[in-house]
Design a protein that fits this description.
The protein is mainly α and 98 residues long. The chain has one domain. It is 42% helix and 10% strand. The chain has a two-stranded parallel ribbon. α3 links the parallel β1 and β2. The chain starts with a helix and ends with a helix.
Length: 98
């Protein structure tokens, strides 16, 4: 049986770049600048590199009425093609009003 651990580490590192300190900035600190509606989809906590405190900070920094963070149940980092795809698409389509 082959372990998927190295693959998971690669994906985790890629995702960490969006939320964790890199070169003096974090995405979380920049969401306040987004003036358009912003939906942030996050996979289940067991598979996410985004900690609960970072998610709370992200929610607090989103502009009132234009931003939303959704933890999609039953998903992992492949939410657009793997487990939880239906739940992800339902959430996304509801956000778009489709």
């Amino acid at each position: 049986m082959t372990s998927c651990a190295p693959i998971r580490i690669v994906f985790s590192c890629a995702n960490e770049g969006f939320f964790l300190p890199r070169e003096g900035w974090r995405l979380v600190e920049r969401v306040e600048r987004v003036e358009a509606p912003l939906l942030v989809l996050v996979c289940e906590p067991a598979f996410s590199v985004v900690s609960a405190p970072v998610l709370e900070e992200l929610r607090a920094r989103l502009r009132d009425g234009t931003g939303r963070v959704v933890e999609v149940p039953g998903t992992n980092h492949t939410m657009f093609r793997g487990p939880g795809y239906a739940a992800t698409m339902t959430t996304l389509l509801a956000w778009l009003g489709a």
